[in-house]
Specification:
Blueprint: E1 2-6, H1 15-27, E2 32-37, H2 39-48, E3 57-60, H3 74-77, H4 82-91, E4 97-100, H5 104-115, E5 125-130, E6 136-139, H6 149-165, E7 173-177, H7 188-198, E8 203-208, E9 220-222, H8 225-249, H9 254-262, H10 264-273, E10 281-285, E11 291-294, H11 300-316, H12 318-327
Helix pairs in contact: 1-11, 4-5, 6-7
Length: 337
């Protein structure tokens, strides 16, 4: 098993990503780790952090794709970037999975153009685990701003397989994010998708309102990327807000500070529950090769966990499972029909 990591992209690159790569190499000794980036910068950073770069393979790159770069044109204009080189290695079989904390649009475009989509899958989608009391897989969480009913059904199928094989849920429930529970609620593409989802062979529980998501309404929540990304960002922000509010309450006076000391273990448990770094990253489901999108602000822990997720993704052969489904499903035919 070999995991390729783009260590030059992201808010905390290259230090946090290199640190995470080295930690992953130690945590998973049976897995080879290759880091893509400017070798001089990587070695200098390793020296500053007192890391041993010998435990990872360094792949030279020249440029870096920034968050402000145009997702489509940048693949051609920055063919010598760490992201593009890593994706090419993956496409050519020089690795089993690729991890990047870089530009989401560029990663999606590069993944589609370089590694290609699974035959029969119309669009790749980002599948993100929401760190709620009962984890919920949100798909799509930002790849496709506009979605057709057929694509929603394919997203739902891919999400259900991820929940089954990677999250260990034998018969995952699938819900469609909407502004009401009635089948006639929502925009035209959602209304059209409802009966198609009902006809699928997975457990469809109908429309789910956002207020019910934290309370286990479904295991997989399917929506378009525009709405999904808004929900994702709101959930992340609300988690930080609630933890900050809780911290402020325990700092009010001596009595509350003493209470906090007694409850420290429970408070850390709550913090860990909402920690997105525990999940590491989000896979781009529908691509022919495993590509993991780590959060732009990923720290070393998040990168280490993204590698863990990449290993599990590759070992489960989820792409093969999706490909077998897609091979018997025409591009314009509902998944599971």
């Amino acid at each position: 098993m070999k995991i390729i990591i783009d260590v030059m992209s992201g808010d905390n690159a290259p230090a946090a990503l290199l640190q995470g790569a080295v930690e992953a190499a130690a945590a998973y000794p049976d897995t080879d780790i290759a880091v893509v980036g400017n070798e001089e910068v990587i070695r200098r950073t390793a020296d500053e952090l007192h890391l041993d770069p010998a435990c990872v393979e360094i792949i030279q790159s020249v440029s870096v794709i920034g968050m402000e770069d145009n997702p489509v044109s940048v693949i051609r204009e920055k063919s010598d970037s760490s992201m593009v080189i890593g994706l090419r290695m993956l496409a050519q079989g020089e690795g089993d999975a690729f991890v990047s904390a870089g530009n989401t649009g560029a990663l999606l475009s590069g993944g589609t153009l370089i590694t290609h989509r699974i035959r029969g899958i119309q669009r790749a989608a980002i599948a993100t685990v929401l760190p709620l009391q009962k984890p919920v897989l949100l798909i799509d969480s930002g790849a496709n701003l506009q979605t057709t009913p057929e694509q929603l059904v394919q997203f739902a199928y891919m999400g259900a397989q991820y929940a089954k094989y990677l999250m260990g849920i034998e018969n995952p429930s699938v819900g469609m994010l909407n502004n009401g529970t009635e089948p006639t609620k929502g925009q035209e593409f959602q209304v059209a998708a409802y009966p198609m989802l009902e006809a699928c062979d997975f457990h469809f529980v109908g429309n789910v309102e956002a207020k019910e998501v934290p309370f286990g309404a479904c295991d997989v929540l399917v929506t378009d990327g525009y709405t999904g990304n808004i929900l994702l960002k709101y959930t992340e922000g609300m988690g930080r807000f609630m933890l900050g509010t809780l911290k402020g309450l325990f700092r009010r006076n001596l009595l509350t500070k003493l209470s906090a000391m007694l409850m420290r273990k429970n408070l850390y448990a709550v913090k860990d529950r909402f920690d997105v770094s525990e999940y590491g990253g989000a896979p781009l489901l529908g691509l022919s090769k495993p590509v993991i999108k780590a959060h732009g602000s990923s720290d070393a822990k998040a990168i280490r966990n993204a590698v863990r997720q990449a290993i599990r993704f590759a070992e489960a052969d989820l792409n093969g499972i999706i490909a077998r489904f897609a091979s018997g499903t025409a591009a314009d035919k509902p998944a599971g029909a």
